[in-house]
Specification:
By secondary structure, the protein is an alpha/beta fold. The protein has helices at 11-22, 39-45, 54-59, 78-81, 94-97, 101-104, 110-117, 132-138, 157-170, 201-216, 235-244, and strands spanning 4-7, 27-29, 49-51, 63-66, 85-88, 122-125, 149-154, 173-176. The protein has a domain at 69-183: 3-Layer(aba) Sandwich (Rossmann fold), CATH 3.40.50.720. Helix content is 36%, strand content 12%. Helix 1 (11-22) packs parallel to helix 8. Bound molecules: NADP nicotinamide-adenine-dinucleotide phosphate. NADP nicotinamide-adenine-dinucleotide phosphate (NAP) is lined by residues 7-13, 31-33, 37, 54, 67-70, 72, 75, 89-91, 128, 131-132.
């Protein structure tokens, strides 16, 4: 079974790694502080996991999950990621990442912006629109009646097929939202983002509004609060949400 690399092994990276291991896939984790700092995570994940540098994680297999703050994306090892299928989980949060004019204006979607740095990589936007908590809660085997769907977007059809195959093994159906230029359809605060996977979507939206107030007051929380229980989102419903959603530019967002 092919190995899956990870650059970023925090909330999202470690959860996706856990799903991969459950599916029988070996994982190579990395972060900014070095392999030693991942000892506890590796011990928890077990023998299918090991820690390495970002370059080593990028080279470990054909597919790499990139899950770091967007502000750090220029540190990604572009040469090592050239030719790889890169699953980009990153979201743009200006209060955390700083202002990026091409994203604020809607000239580029976030993953198109990342593609500028990773020119040779085959990017697929994935896992960015669901909380790490719901990822673990909602994963189901193929064919389960209550299987949840995740959107993907990308410009390389083979890379997208590879990502869909991986995500299926990890426990989710996928819905193709189109090329990277359409990937704004599941960026923050669109209809398919986060609350769509909540048992109480209104509570999730209210939580975002509260976070937005705290950010505007200059007191952003150090850690995002728990999002409440998840609820399955079937592929047909996700398709409807993706098709019907409006673009949310930074200026229109409650949390930015
Ligand atoms: N949390 C969620 O529910 C969620 C859901 C969907 C998408 N996202 C998005 O996914 C991304 C990751 O979110 P997260 O919540 O997992 O963040 P997180 O818990 O803060 O983890 C970030 C990871 O990135 C690593 N990292 C930071 N700078 C790096 C660099 N220059 N090189 C290599 N690794 C680096 C960190 O390692 P060190 O600690 O060693 O710096 C850490 O392992 C963000 O863009 C976020 O917006 C988050």
């Amino acid at each position: 079974m092919a190995t899956l690399g990870f650059i970023g092994s925090g909330h999202v990276g470690a959860k996706v790694a856990r799903l991969a291991i459950a599916a029988g896939i070996d994982v190579v984790l990395s972060n900014s502080r070095g392999p030693e700092s991942l000892a506890a995570t590796v011990a928890e994940l077990g023998e299918r996991s090991r820690a390495a540098t970002p370059e080593e994680a990028a080279l470990a297999g054909d597919r790499v999950v990139v899950s770091i703050p967007l502000a750090a994306h220029r540190a990604l090892p572009a040469a090592a990621l050239a030719g790889k299928v890169v699953l980009d989980t990153m979201n743009y949060y200006p209060f955390r990442d700083g202002r990026i004019e091409t994203l604020d204006s809607g000239e580029l979607a976030t993953t198109e912006f990342v593609q500028q740095h990773l020119a040779g990589a085959r990017l697929v936007k994935a896992f960015n629109n669901i909380s790490d908590q719901h990822l673990l809660e909602l994963a189901r085997p193929a064919g389960a009646a209550d299987r949840t769907a995740l959107p993907i977007a990308g410009d390389d059809p083979e890379a997208k097929a590879s990502a869909a195959e991986l995500i299926s093994r990890l426990g989710f159906d996928t819905v193709d939202a189109g090329p990277l230029s359409e990937s704004w359809r599941f960026e923050p605060e669109t209809a398919a983002y986060l609350a769509a996977y909540s048992a109480d979507p209104d509570a999730a939206i209210a939580l975002f509004a509260e976070l937005g107030k705290a950010v505007r007051a200059g007191t952003p929380p150090l850690q995002a609060p728990p999002v409440g229980p998840g609820a399955p989102l079937p592929a047909a419903r996700l398709r409807t949400l993706l098709d019907g959603t409006a673009r949310k530019l930074t200026a229109d967002r409650v949390l930015a």
